[in-house]
Amino acid sequence: MKEYLAYLARVFRFDFSVYNDLPRRPFLAVFLNLFLAGLIYGGSSLYFNLGQMREIFTDAASINIAGFMIVLSGIALVFLAQAGSSLFIWTFCRGVGGNTSLINYYVGTGMAVPVFWIALPFFAALGADFGGSLFNSLAVVVTVAAAVSLVASIKEASGLTAGRLFAALLLTLIFVGSFLYLWLV
Fold first, then answer.
1. How far apart are the C-alpha atoms of 19 and 99, rounded to whole Å?
2. Given a cut of 90, is residue 39 above it in pLDDT?
């Protein structure tokens, strides 16, 4: 536990050398990071949508069950999003000459998740149509900070130069963005 807390302190200080020396049990750390991220996202979604739930459900039991399901959905969403993003990032990094081991990308992106803990309540609030100019500005700042940490972990996992990493991440963003556009429109 002490090692995990020391790792978290380094991640939140943006000490990117943390991605070079992983904890003894990196998969346990990734699981904890993702589970806590899911709890934060699910709990935030529940908080920002509680008013709508009270309009739909009239009895306390239904509200409790629905709230529990929202939190569980948040946990599942975070695990699936991290696994899917790791797979896409691995595909395009491998395509430009990066490390060929998928596990390195899975662990690398999972180790960068704690910085997203700060951004996840903002994502949940934006999903519930909550916001304003100051709120949206804060959301952008914390999302950029989380993205910087994620890019540093991907750079370490892939072993790519900055130019190749930029190309791989740009291809990933174009592909995922196109996929989301086709799915949502």
1. 15
2. yes
Count of C-beta atoms within a 10 Å radius of residue 54: 10
Classify 57 as helix, strand or coil: coil
Determine the angle formed by the axes of helices 113-127 and 133-158, rounding to 10 degrees. Answer: 150
The Cα 61–Cα 138 span in angstroms is: 35
Question: Does the pLDDT value for residue 131 go beyond 90?
Answer: no
pLDDT at residue 1, as a whole number = 76
Residue 15 in this model has a pLDDT that exceeds 90: no
Output the CA–CA distances (angstroms, integers) from residue 142 to 22, 102, 157, in the order listed. Answer: 24, 27, 23
Average pLDDT of span 39-63: 90
| 171-180 long-range Cβ contacts below 8 angstroms, 24+ apart | 171/92, 171/95, 171/96, 172/88, 172/89, 172/91, 172/92, 175/88, 175/92, 176/85, 176/88
**pTM of the complete model:** 0.88
At residue 128, the 3 state secondary structure works out as coil
Are residues 7 and 23 in contact, defined by beta-carbon separation less than 8 angstroms? Answer: yes
Q: Which amino acid is at 183?
A: W
10 Å CB burial of residue 160 (0-12, 13-18, 19+) is buried
Say if residues 114 and 13 touch (Cβ distance below 8 Å).
Answer: no
